[in-house]
Specification:
The complex is a heterodimer of chains A (377) and B (111). Chain A has 377 residues and is α/β, with parallel strands linked by helices. Chain A contains twelve helices and eleven strands. In chain A, the strands form two sheets. A nine-stranded mixed beta sheet of chain A has the order 3-2-4-7-1-8-11-10-9, with helices on both faces. In chain A, strands 5-6 form a two-stranded antiparallel ribbon. The longest helix of chain A has 16 residues. Chain A is globular and about 55 Å long. The relative contact order of chain A is 0.20. Chain B is mainly beta. Chain B has a domain of 64 residues: OB fold (Dihydrolipoamide Acetyltransferase, E2P) (Beta Barrel), CATH 2.40.50. Chain B has no helices and eight strands. Chain B is globular and about 45 Å long. The chains are: A alpha/beta (377), B mainly beta (111). The interface between A and B is medium-sized, with 36 and 34 residues.
Chain lengths: 377, 111
């Protein structure tokens, strides 16, 4: 049985005090159900991502109760930034197996306004090793900065070669209602922004946002369902100290998803790839095979990832500029790709229309990888 | 074999008793061949810088030195990559040796 994404929703992202994580999850879930033409009582499975501000033991049951759902299957999921697509993959497997016919995948968090910046940074740094890495004082930006240092050194590049990725994401966000960061930037602005963990500067890093996102996965394609034709995962390490930079797991995840779908990289018309930092996006694009080694930034500068480029990428602005509220940040790429495949993106619609979409999420320090191939009905 | 996490001024790594592959963090079994109970071995503490960052922003209440401070990934001569702080290191590819000035590994240019 083929699973279909039949409902999607993403809220505005930004600093928006006054709502809890559950409020954001419920807002996005309700909108996705409406989009799918379903009621909460139609759901037989609810999957919900963790929220660092909530820390609840059973977020899916919590959300189901709030929505008025009484599903047969409900559980929270934690795979860092890959959580949203890990839930999509789980939903697809449930539908394929005949275990569920309507699955809600939801996430939301008041990550920007529900805690201090220091608390958020300390919480996220826990993806480091408790004994061997965290005592050194590293942060998530520092871990990715180490990746960036190794990436740039291996390819003979400098920080200016990553900056075009941030510039392209910002240009996309400028046309997207609800984006967190929309003021135009250029490469000079990225290089002049304050250093966070060199070689990464402020504009190499995604903002921390409040918001939510949700999708509904069903066995019934409905009128405009987008088929989930392949999913794949790769989990090769947790900690940066154990990372094999030549085989992080991203390509493995993508290969599995493409093989299931009977598709190749060349078939992809629109993509959503995790972009917590510029270097994240560069390394994922290159390992998966969307860009040649060291060429991701140059490709961005040449317009290859623009809406009218050869590979329209993160057309909502990505984490770097639509924003990042945790699990929902990674789900927003999926919402955007589905919206593009439906032809419903309005002024930011990719011409074509696109038929085959690809999404990829990364959790931890390039630790957890989930890919999916999506196809227009 | 104990290391700096237990107060000994020493960097250690795991080595598989069967296939002899090495990795930095303690594991229950070899990730390559599955042989359980790897041997914990001591490293000489010398190596080559594989990655370098200077951290300018770090949260209050976390165990870090005053900003800015440097972190490195070092490819030890035993073939294992480890993370440490750094002092006086300027580039990837530099030869370094470890010390433990604050009880944690800190790499400086090798003399």
């Amino acid at each position: 049985m083929i699973p279909y994404v039949t409902g999607v929703a993403v809220t505005p992202f930004g600093r928006q005090p006054g709502r809890t994580a559950l409020d954001w999850q419920a807002a996005a879930a309700g909108a996705a159900l409406t989009d799918a033409g379903l009621r909460a009582t139609d759901l037989d499975a609810v999957l919900c991502g963790y929220a660092t501000t909530a820390g609840h033991l059973m977020p899916a049951d919590l959300l189901a109760e709030r929505l008025g759902a009484r599903p047969a299957i409900a559980h929270g999921t934690s795979a860092g930034g890959a959580t949203g697509l890990a839930m999509l993959a789980a939903a697809a497997r449930l539908v394929r197996a005949g275990e569920a016919r309507a699955v809600l995948v939801a996430a939301g968090e008041d990550r920007a306004s529900g805690q201090s910046g220091d608390t958020s940074a300390r919480t996220l740094a826990q993806v480091g090793h408790a004994e061997y890495e965290i005592p050194l004082g590293g942060t998530v930006p520092a871990y990715y900065a180490l990746l960036a240092s190794a990436y740039l050194a291996a390819r003979g590049l400098g920080p200016a070669d990553l900056a075009p990725l941030a510039v392209q994401m910002r240009a996309h966000a400028a046309d997207t209602p609800g984006a967190h960061r929309t003021a135009p930037i250029d490469v000079d602005a990225v290089l002049a922004s304050p250093p966070i963990a060199e070689p990464l500067r402020l504009l190499d890093c995604c903002p921390v946002s409040d918001g939510g996102a949700a999708v509904v996965v069903t066995a019934d394609p409905g009128g405009r369902g987008v088929a989930v034709t392949g999913v794949g995962e790769g989990h090769r390490h947790q900690h940066l100290s154990e990372a094999d930079l030549a085989d992080l797991g991203a390509a493995r995840a993508a290969r599995t998803a493409f093989a299931q779908a009977g598709r190749t990289l060349a078939d992809v018309d629109v993509a959503g790839v995790y972009d917590s930092f510029t270097v994240t996006l560069a390394m994922l694009l290159e390992e998966i095979g969307f860009a040649e080694a060291g060429r991701a930034g140059a490709d961005a500068a040449a317009g290859r990832f623009a809406r009218d480029g050869a590979l329209p990428l993160n057309t909502h602005g990505g984490l770097l500029s639509y924003g990042h509220c945790g699990v929902a940040g990674g789900l927003a790429h999926l919402v955007e790709v589905v919206t593009q495949l439906r032809g419903g993106a309005g002024p930011r619609q990719v011409p074509g229309p696109p038929r085959v979409g690809f999404v990829h999420g990364d959790g931890g320090v390039m630790s957890a990888h989930v890919s999916a191939v999506l196809e227009a009905a | 074999m104990t290391d700096w996490t237990a107060g000994e001024p020493q960097v250690c790594f795991d080595e598989c008793r069967s296939c002899a592959r090495r990795w930095p963090l303690p594991r229950a079994a070899c990730p390559h061949c599955g042989t359980p109970d790897p041997q914990r071995r001591g490293a000489a503490g010398t190596g080559t810088v594989a990655a370098l960052t200077v951290v300018h922003r770090a949260p209050e209440g976390a165990p870090h030195p005053p900003t800015p401070f440097a972190l490195v990934l070092v490819d030890l001569d035993e073939g294992v990559r480890v993370m440490g702080r750094a002092a006086g290191v300027s580039a990837v590819g530099e030869r370094v040796a470890v010390g433990f000035p604050d009880g944690v590994p800190s790499f400086a240019p090798a003399r």
